[in-house]
Amino acid sequence: MRIIVISDSHKKGAVVDRIIRSNPDAKHVFFLGDITSDIEDFVYEYTDRIFHIVRGNCDGFCEYPLYDIVKVENIDILYTHGHSFNVKYGTDRLYQFAKNSGCSIALYGHTHKPCILYADGVHIVNPGSCSCSRDGADTYAVIDILKNGILPQIKKV
Questions:
Q1: Which residues of 54-75 are buried (b: 16+ CB within 10 A; e: fewer)?
Q2: Averaged pLDDT, 143-151
Q3: How would residue 80 be classed by pLDDT, with cut points 50, 70 and 90?
Q4: Which of 143, 144, 111, 139 is nearest to 127 (CA)?
Q5: What is the value of pTM for the model shown?
Q6: 8 A C-beta contact, residue 38 and residue 14
Q7: pLDDT tens track for 1-45
Q8: Alpha helices in 13-116 (DSSP H)
């Protein structure tokens, strides 16, 4: 099972569309906030996908939660924008919350810098920003959930 993780599009919906279109084998799409309107139309366009959306610090008052947990292929996944976990100062709070919640994957954005970490059974993945990176290239993440493990990767847009 393949999932894609997108964050921090900041009014670049065309980039979000290109990422979804270029990953036809990804059944689940996680959008980690900052600007949720960039993905909302694609929920109706790509009806063969399952969308998971949270709000970011630039989304103001919208219907999406700050974080959520979903099960994909019997793997519990925590996903959040990250500002409510203070991820700009490290991932310890996010990791502890994911671990205490029984999650094997914790997804976050907000920093605009891609990152993949692994600690004590938890894969921590930041896809970076798909449209305004602070680390060189605009990126997103692909995570393959396989029979023998979890394989996260950072991809350039």
A1: bbbeebeeeebebbebeebeeb
A2: 96
A3: very high
A4: 139
A5: 0.97
A6: no
A7: 999 999 999 999 999 999 999 999 999 999 999 999 999 999 999
A8: 13-21, 37-45, 92-100
Q: How far apart are CA 108 and CA 138, in angstroms?
A: 16
SS3 63: coil
Cα separation of 131 and 28, whole Å?
20
- The alpha carbon torsion through 28, 29, 30, 36 (nearest 10 deg) reads -140
Q: Rounded mean pLDDT of 70-89?
A: 97
What whole-number distance in Å separates Cα of residue 84 and Cα of residue 94? 9
Does residue 114 contact residue 5 with C-beta atoms inside 8 Å? no
Q: Are 32 and 55 in contact (CB under 8 A)?
A: no
